[in-house]
Amino acid sequence: MNIGINATSTADFSKEQLKQMNMDIIHFHVEKDGITYRDDAFTVGELFEFTQATKKMCHTAAPNVEEYEQYFEAELKKYDQIIHFTMSSKLSSCYDNAVAATHGNKNIVIIDTKGTGGASALLATYAIRLRDAGYPFEEIVNKTLQRVAFASTSFIIKDMTYLFKGGRCTGLKYFASKLLRLRPVIETDKEGNFVVGKIYRGDSSKCIRKYVEDRIASYENIDYDTAYMNISTCDDEMVKEIEELLKAKGFKHVYFNPSCATNSYHAGPSVMGVQFMYDGEHIVKPAE
Fold it and tell me: What is the pLDDT of residues 83-104, one digit of tens each?
């Protein structure tokens, strides 16, 4: 069977990766100054500059049911079966909309990744490896679902202004972070909700490095095959430093992916996240 694997733009795949993996995505939307655009219509920097200049917030939205219906209709002309990955259903309506748009079609499976960014990308990439190794549709779905609970989603932010204005953190935590100049880590819990994790204070570059080191040290059974760095805005020197750190820690493949406008705008500028799997090495052998 010809199996298509696709995802929402919030998986933060680069254009090069999408082309290499022959993978499609469906885009979220950004409403800027009363007009709705696809979330790749602007650079992340342009959105931040707009808000800083006008004090107006932009708003993001998931693809609606009708858009998903049209998307799946087009995908089923290319594939017999589809596995679609969405960001956490606790953070967006995209999962529910996608499920509704299948109308019970058993040839379309929607997977709630319980995360976003690199965590979603890691799960979709694993499914692609299984497909390319010749595994059947049901087995790809089952094997991938078993790994959902072990995909790490986290990022360290400069301040909580955008999360606060977007309704994703309490006022108390926001004002505390502004007052104390704290750099909190935001992560997803097992249900896919955003929660505040470890909190750092001090120089930005030192906080980011310590966050990465602590994140890796927190798990005993890391899959060192791949790590993703997801960035909203960050200087090239810091990106290079963290990439070298991840490789020194043992990761074989490290991908630097600028986050899509949807992810970046909610997190704010100067945000970095490092994502990996922590259920051990999963070597994909050819299916028998």
Answer: 999 999 999 999 999 999 999 9
Q: Is the dihedral of CA 255, 261, 266, 268 positive or negative?
A: positive
Which pLDDT tens digit goes with each residue over 243-253? Answer: 999 999 999 99
Length of the chain: 288
151, 115 contact by CB (below 8 A): yes
- The pLDDT mean for the chain works out to 90
CATH pick for 3-49+57-145 out of 3.30.1330.80, 3.40.50.2000, 3.40.50.10170, 3.40.50.300: 3.40.50.10170
Domain boundaries along the sequence of the chain: 3-49+57-145, 154-277
The radius of gyration computed from the CA coordinates of the chain, to the nearest angstrom, equals 19
Tell me: the pLDDT tens digits for 176-204? 556 567 888 989 999 999 888 898 988 88
Distance of CA 149 to the CA centre of its chain: 14
Confirm if 144 and 126 have CB atoms less than 8 A apart.
yes
Q: Are strands 35-38 and 29-32 parallel, antiparallel or unpaired?
A: antiparallel
Task: Record the pTM.
Answer: 0.92
Ramachandran sector of residue 44 (left: φ over 0; alpha: ψ -120 to 50; beta: rest) = alpha
- Classify 256 as helix, strand or coil: strand
Q: What is the CATH number of domain 154-277?
A: 3.30.1180.10
